[in-house]
Amino acid sequence: MKGKHILVFRFSALGDVAMCVPVLRCLLQTYPELQITIVTRKRFVPLFETLPNVQFFTPDFMGEHKGIAGLYRLFKSLKKLRPTAIADLHQVLRTQLLMLYFRPLFWIKQALINKGRAEKKRLTRQTPKTLVPLLPQVHRYAQVFEKLGFPLSLSAHEFPPRPICPNTEALQLAENRKWIGIAPFAAHTNKQYPLDLMQQVVAFLQQEHQVILFGFGKEEHAQLDVWANAYKHVANATGIYAFAAELRLIAQLDLMISMDSANGHLAANYNVPVLTLWGNTHPCLGFAPFEQPQKNSLTPDLTAYPLLPTSVYGNKKVKGYQDAMRSIAPKTVIEFALEVLGGKMP
Question: 180 near 254, Cβ under 8 Å?
Answer without folding.
Answer: yes
